[in-house]
Amino acid sequence: MSEIKSFAVIPISLPDEDPEWKFAGRAYPKWDACVVALKAEDNSVGYGYAAAFTHLGATNPGVEAALRRLLPLLVGRDALDIEGSLRIVDKAIRDNQVAKSGIDCALYDLAAKQLAVPLYQLFGGRVQSEIPICRMLALKDAPRMAEKAKARVDEGYRALKLKVAGDVAEDVARVRAVRMAIGDQIRLVVDPNMSYMAKDAIAFVERIAEFGVDMIEQPVRESDLEGLALVTRNVSIGVEADESAFSPASAFHLAAHRIVDAVSMKVTKMGGLRNVLAVARICEASHLGCRMGATVGSRLLTAHALHLCAALPNLNYPSELAEFLHIMDDPFEGLEVRDGVIKIPDEPGAGVHLRRDVAWTV
To answer: How far, in Å, CA of 199 to CA of 278, rounded?
Structure first.
């Protein structure tokens, strides 16, 4: 047995290559996070990434404070006792899924390195060696979104997600412009980020039916489950929950009441890999679609999500696992995206590494 002997919390702030990157109601010129590092007695280090998304109510100071309260509880514990450590964390603080996600991922990364296996082995083994990618288009006017969409297709991506803003006429214009720019063979998702009322969302979907959109993600507020169900019952395309699916319990409720057709799973939102795996199993058992949603931030965050995807047989739509490509100053390196797919690393742990010019003490 190797025990956890020390930890570190490293706040970072990574600029976006597009200082105007935004979605409905939120701008993200930079991406704040805290990196969690856990060192075992054999000097192996597991890393986790707690993304401080403001739309999830998180800030770097708040996440850092929570981590510094929780991580001392893990010192001296068996590095392989992931479940036991996470139970201690869950009992020590309520909610704060962001901080818990960083701890969860660091524990899994450390355990995989202790066992000298790729991270996906901890989830039952790899069932696929590469994951098809859906790339996001940040919210802009119709011509600029069409231009960006064409560039992404030229790079080899075969699925795109358009951010829209809750104005039916303007959003229809965005979808029309993108479809005209990329042709009929590229799969499309639209994401209003909760900016619609239910009836307006229905009207929007009716007006974009001719453009071959596959799915609408979280059209209404996360708490408006009646509205979400109303949209699902009255549109012909798939309806996916994002903000409304924030835990295994919430995903179970969505599935039990058939409120949506699919769930967007996210490591940060759901509190870590353990919870995302539970949500994936709920979706599998209830015949709901699922995929990995946007992992915006360092390659470290993407690598953890990617390894879990490798072990899931029921992903039914391209996942959003290439958004690290527009993030600058990433302290981690690794991962390849080619022709619209990302390959699963086979080395021990998550398969990404600190850059040589980055020196952190754990």
So the answer is: 32
CB-based contacts of 62-68 (< 8 A; 24+ apart in sequence): 63/33, 63/34, 63/96, 63/98, 63/99, 63/102, 64/9, 64/11, 64/34, 66/93, 66/96, 66/99, 67/9, 67/34, 67/36, 67/99, 67/102, 67/103, 68/9
Q: What is the pLDDT of residues 130-178, one digit of tens each?
A: 999 999 999 999 999 999 999 999 999 999 999 999 999 999 999 999 9
Instruction: State how far the Cα of 47 lies from the Cα of 301, in Å rounded to an integer.
Output: 9
Active-site residues, by number, are: 161, 320
Average pLDDT for consecutive 10-residue bins of the chain (362 residues)? 94 95 85 97 96 85 96 98 97 93 98 97 96 97 98 97 97 98 97 97 97 98 98 98 97 98 97 98 97 96 98 96 96 94 96 93 86
β-partners of residue 35 are: 10, 49
Burial class of residue 118 (count of CB atoms within 10 Å of its CB; 0-12, 13-18, 19+): buried
Tokens of 272: 């870590």
